[in-house]
Amino acid sequence: MGGPGELDGAHHAVVVVGGGQAGLAMSWYLCRRGVEHVVLERHSVGYEWRERRWDSFCLVTPNWQCRLPGFPYAGEDPDGFMPGADIVSYLEGYAAAFGPPLHEGVTVRRLRRTAAGVFEVRTSAGTCTADQVVVATGPYHDPAVPRLAERLPGDVTQLHSSSYRSPAKLPDGAVLVVGTGQSGCQIAEDLHLAGRTVHLAVGSAPRSARRYRGRDVIAWLDEMGYYAKGIDEFADANEVRLRANHYMTGRDRGHDIDLRAFALQGMRLHGRLSDVAGTRLMFADDLASNLDRADAVAEGIKDSIDRYVSARGLDVPTEARYTPVWRPTSPDTDVDLRAEDISSVVWSTGYHRDHRWIEVPVFDGRGYPTHERGVTSCPGLYFLGLPWQYTWGSGRFAGVARDASYLDGRIGLAGRQRATDEVRWIAGTPTETYPDLDWLMSTETAGAGRG
After folding, report:
1. Of these four, 57, 346, 394, 404, which has the most CB atoms within 10 Å of its CB?
2. Is the pTM higher than 0.85?
3. Structural domain span for residue 357
């Protein structure tokens, strides 16, 4: 692993930005082919899992899905769910296993492509250049907190889910959790199990059963080929990429998260948080429909498993279908913070992407990088580790290897093409969309002098 001082003024065949699971997977393939490269990591290996997860966090996917290239899970609990500390150890062990050219503590501040067709990478440790660049920084950059948070009283403790650690770290009193994606539901459960009074603003995220007909649902879907299905096989590909993940948990060896059961146990469920006025919290009257839609998705997954079992004549246990254990009758749509003793708010409202440091026109109107399997329209620039980059597993331990392998092939092809282009226009015109301007101008100037 290199030091920051080695970067300034250097040129590299490939620069990989980001040293998480995606960046390390990319480096593994490049190392295997002997491609000269560096991996630039703002913090350290495992930082996101170490510093932006709560104390009781576990993977939602089973350990057997941890299959980084050259380093599949080899522990004694393939059907278990790694806690945060074990995830960090897994990544650190991966880096130690093959020794990537990793530079930790280096922030990339600017990326641009010069007229000569090379990339200029400006970092906190100086400026280097590269023939090709892989952006492997993932999708979770800046915590997203809605502007209505500014209207809450100043004495209410507010934090994003990325900063939540444990119930004991919050002041006494009830807690409002906003958002029911995986983080929101799991944090609400964490608080609930600790005996805290929890108010949960329920959004439109879908849910899934943890197990069905004798197996983990993820194992069923994997066998059914769902996780190998490419984004190009969906009619609504752009919408698929933006969908929330199904909520369930790997805690305590994994189980369903049933918000209706939590309500029976005293958790206060509300619809989507729509406004804040002084000490008043106003919620949309959509709790019942949000719960129904989440259940419908879970039951739809079971329908697909049933069809698969039937079509193949599999001898597996039958299982009774889910019956809602609670329904809202008169949902609270107007709640007073003081009356309910709500002292804290946890915003489980996702993240914003931040690619402002990339000065290359490869983004759509929403700021999403336009690509085909990670390959952008700019020659030599790639993305890796995005959700649904190509399959469901693209942004996860389960599928990032497949995407990294694909990009490795494209990087190799582009490298060979670049070497061919060094023979100046011997067969006509270069394959770039524009020539090497510095070389062209120098030859034209020489020609003008000879005249």
Report:
1. 404
2. yes
3. 4-141+353-421
